[in-house]
Specification:
It is built from 11 helices and 7 strands. By secondary structure, the chain is α/β, with parallel strands linked by helices. Helix 9 packs parallel to helix 11.
Length: 260
């Protein structure tokens, strides 16, 4: 991560307004830190962070220790060029509404140039209309209308994840799996020959339908794309089914040690 990326993420602050339960403070701090965010601002929390908050933070204690505490929302938003408020309730006054992915992209785009804030309200009632009036946009997490109440720390996690996902897309970052040592075409052919012999020996299936059965099995294993270890295991199972004491390992079969 380069310095500019560090600065972009560091300019995104999460503002929690009048939280009631200290556990939510810790859970929110943990949610932010797992997604690479480091700014937490508190507006008139009913109780300051305590032992429960530290326990729920689970290693994100530093975010709680650095969190600013403010008497008014305006202080928590000082210097912000963009403010997005989160609310589950429909409002009588319409605000520009964003889905979480769009809100995340906008926060990142604006954070490249200056400070931005994501504001979440009280556990019981969310943000007031007066507080939303200080927001440029409103973001809603699309929950089930029959039960739309979402814990504030859970909402922080959802929105922080969307920010992380948008940031990763902007960086071109992808989760890459380790390359598998796939079995070759000839190894698969040898396996299918062994499978056909074993099925015949144990009397499995109708001989008149064997060609269709074998074709379906070939399609099955082609979809699975087994690696060398898996092919050796399958050949060993077939050998055991044939009544042999040891697995059949033809010379052409690739040998590989299981990872320790």
């Amino acid at each position: 991560m380069d310095a500019q990326t560090d600065m972009t993420l560091a300019r995104i602050r999460c503002v929690l307004v009048e939280t009631t339960h200290t556990g939510n403070l810790g859970a929110a701090a943990r949610a932010l830190k797992t997604m690479g965010l480091s700014r937490l601002e508190l507006v008139k929390p009913r109780h300051p962070p305590d032992a429960e908050a530290l326990a729920r933070a689970a290693g994100a204690d530093d975010l709680l220790q650095r969190a600013g505490t403010h008497q008014h929302l305006v202080g928590a938003l000082a210097g912000c060029r963009l403010v997005i408020g989160a609310s589950a309730r429909q409002r009588t006054v319409e605000w520009p509404l964003l889905e979480p992915p769009a809100a995340a992209r906008l926060l990142l785009a604006e954070a490249a140039a200056g400070e931005v804030a994501l504001v979440l309200g009280r556990e019981s009632s969310g943000l007031t209309n007066e507080e939303l009036a200080r927001c440029h946009y409103l973001v809603q997490i699309p929950t089930d209308p029959a039960f739309s109440s979402l814990n504030v720390a859970a909402a922080v996690q959802v929105l922080a994840y969307e920010i992380r996902r948008a940031w990763r897309e902007g960086q071109g970052e992808q989760i890459r799996e380790d390359a598998r040592d796939l079995a070759t075409a000839e190894a698969l052919d040898a396996f299918h020959d062994h499978l056909a012999r074993t099925l015949a020996e144990i009397g499995f299936g109708d001989p008149e339908q064997s060609s269709r059965l074998l074709m379906r099995l070939r399609r099955l294993f082609n979809r699975a794309r087994p690696d060398w270890i898996e092919i050796n295991i399958l050949r060993g199972i077939l050998s055991a089914a044939q009544g042999r004491k040891t697995a059949h390992r033809p010379a052409a079969v690739h040998q590989e040690q299981e990872p320790s």
